[in-house]
Amino acid sequence: MSRLPTVHRVTEIEQGRDRIEEIDLEFSNGERRLYRRLKPRGFGAVIIAAMPDPDTVLLIREYACGVNRYELGLPKGRIDRGESPIEAANRELKEEAGFGARRLRIVRNLTLVPTYMAHQTYLVLAEDLYPERLPGDEPEQLDVLPWRLDALDQLMLREDCSEGRSLAAMFIIREYLAKGRPGETTE
Question: What predicted TM-score, i.e. pTM, was given to this entire model?
Answer without folding.
Answer: 0.88
